[in-house]
Design brief:
The chain is built from 5 helices and 11 strands. It is of the alpha+beta class. It folds into 2 domains: 123 residues, Ribosomal Protein S5, domain 2 (2-Layer Sandwich); 68 residues, 2-Layer Sandwich (Alpha-Beta Plaits). The longest helix is centred in the middle third of the chain and has 19 residues. The chain is elongated and about 75 Å long.
């Protein structure tokens, strides 16, 4: 069985600031779960008084970066490469620069932006990122107690229960890599009678 790559994310925002040849570089890292959340965070945390607010994010298979006026490829892309190299997911990093009067050149800019972002993520408290599925399990009352007791065995978390006259529906989240095993187990317990749906 192919081993899935391990990712990390942040439990909370973190920042790191340093001075490089009289320019101030402030890296701010944020946990983000959607592109809309990432773009809102950028708007809320960019400093209009700063010279540049460069950023990059990785959310699942979605990647984006922006040089915000710095020479092409010297800021946003190096920040994104740091996120990838340190195996972060669902993370946004904004590096804000206040120009101190000394030009750094393309190589110096790349080192400054990537170095500030890298140190910020190194100092932050990383947590293991585990992709989840949201599912709905519907079963009969007679199977309910046994099915419910098996959810935790597969790392599932029960979010909501709905009791109808004929059956019980349970909404839960479960790690993606445990879904197939739990599906097989529930269908076995209920003799194929349970209905399992993946929710958006």
């Amino acid at each position: 069985m192919e081993k899935k790559e391990t990712f990390y994310t942040l439990p909370a925002p973190y920042h790191h600031q340093q001075e490089i040849r009289k320019s101030i570089f402030l890296a701010q890292a944020f946990p983000v779960s959607s592109i809309n959340q990432a773009m809102d965070t950028i708007q809320n945390h960019r400093d209009p008084e700063a010279t540049h607010n460069c950023w990059a994010y990785r959310i699942g298979q979605h990647y984006r970066s922006d040089d915000d006026g710095e020479p092409s490829g010297t800021a946003g892309r190096p920040i994104l490469q740091v996120i990838e190299k340190q195996n972060y997911n669902e993370v946004l990093v904004i590096v804000t620069r206040w120009f101190g009067g000394i030009k750094l050149g393309a190589g110096g800019l790349i080192r400054a932006y990537s170095g500030t972002a890298a140190e910020c993520l190194r100092q932050a408290s990383a947590i293991l990122y585990i992709p989840q599925k949201n599912i709905e399990v519907t079963c009969s009352f007679s199977d309910y107690a046994l099915v419910k007791s098996r959810i935790a065995e597969y790392g599932g978390i029960l979010q909501q229960e709905d009791f109808c006259s004929q059956h019980v529906s349970m909404n839960l989240t479960i790690p993606e890599d445990q879904y197939d095993a739990m599906l097989t187990r529930i269908l076995d317990i209920t003799r194929g009678q349970a209905l399992i749906k993946i929710k958006d």
